[in-house]
Amino acid sequence: MPGDAPLTVAVIGAGIVGLCAALEVQRAGHHVLLVEPGEPGGRQAASYGNATWINPGAIMPISLPGLWRKVPGFLLDRTGPFTLRWRDLPRHAGWLARFIAAGRDWERIGICARQRYPLCKHTVTDHRAYADEAGVGHLIRQEGLVYVYPDRTAFAAESRIWAMRRELGIRFSEIEEPELRRLQPELSPAYRFGARLDDAGQIADPGAYCAALARLLEARGAQRITARATGFVIDGGRLSAVVTDRGPLACDRAVIAAGIGSAGLAKLAGDRVPLISERGYHVVIPEPGVELGAGLMPSDGQMGVVSTPQGLRLAGQVELADPDADPDWRRADILLGYARKMFPGQAKRFETARIDRWMGNRPSTPDGLPCIGIASGSADIVHAFGHAHTGLTQAPATGRLVAALIDGREPPFDPTPYSARRFAR
């Protein structure tokens, strides 16, 4: 509570959400135990391989009206942006039904967009402040994000989405073909119209950024615990320790920010959350012959295309599969095919490049909202997981909300929509 003695807070997970939560909890004057079995910023983390965007306009859930008509095609087409392995269908059927229902009409989408916006609104400013404190301010870029379309008609087909952004005050600019050619001369002439989210940015190297934030936490007194959290010691609703594979860690509060590993911990804390892995892939093409300013999102591919220090990164795909299943590298090859389509002048260069392929697990709820809030089984445990495609964007606001909940302070915005209790109704 405000004004009380500092607490010992175990933050479970050192992905971007856990790191931002830890920074805000530490800023509030508490001692942080950062519990993570892997290296912060390592390849094992979803935070490592994302599309690098920090986007105030990331208000739309993945499930939109009409999606249900496309599901049979997704099951049959192994080359589309959304796929489900047949053998996993029985296990994921309940989640998929909720996912489709969440996007069944535009009224529900509008509600979801308004609930997502507070998590996205200040993302660039917040990340820039963190990066400056960590000595890696050069990693933050703010050159916008451009959605590219075959023509204005294709853009108009998404008019509801852009209207929702406009209603929330999210700035964007329409880009006609001559300006698009000027901004990105290497881009295929198949794309003749664009819409630029003016205030969006990117973190050029998310892995290096996460590692820098972890170092900042330690420099300010946080304790790194290289262990896997497996449970809690709770008596009468009060938390006394986090159980790990290296023994118990005494603490006053805990934050569950373990990404795809969060559902099991949340269950032990009293909440059943339908969390599955939307597995994503990326390819990085070194020395691609293309240098992007603003990131690109092709309307026909639904992926992020960005320049990074390592090369041109294309990140995307949704594969509903067991987190531990072997990667299907055909998903990465689909991304590489889009690189050739988008930048045909460099296609031969792409053929001979040493491509880096990566797969990671996005922790996803069916309704497009993360789980942030007090656990049902103990007021000493706070959920902070399930951010799916937008963990990088939503992490700072999540961290502020988590710190307020731990302190019992007035939250920066209404936490009700993100409560795990919504799945118990």
UniProtKB/TrEMBL annotation:
PANTHER family: GLYCINE OXIDASE, SARCOSINE DEHYDROGENASE-RELATED
Extent of the signal sequence: none
Protein source organism: Bosea spartocytisi
Keyword 4Fe-4S: no
Ranges of residues in domain FAD dependent oxidoreductase: 9-405
UniProt xrefs under Gene3D superfamilies: D-Amino Acid Oxidase, subunit A, domain 2 (3.30.9.10), FAD/NAD(P)-binding domain (3.50.50.60)
Record's keyword annotation contains Oxidoreductase: yes
Keywords: Oxidoreductase
Protein name per Swiss-Prot or TrEMBL: FAD-binding oxidoreductase
Gene Ontology MF annotations: oxidoreductase activity
Matches recorded under Pfam families: DAO (PF01266)
A GO cellular-component term linked to this record: cytoplasm
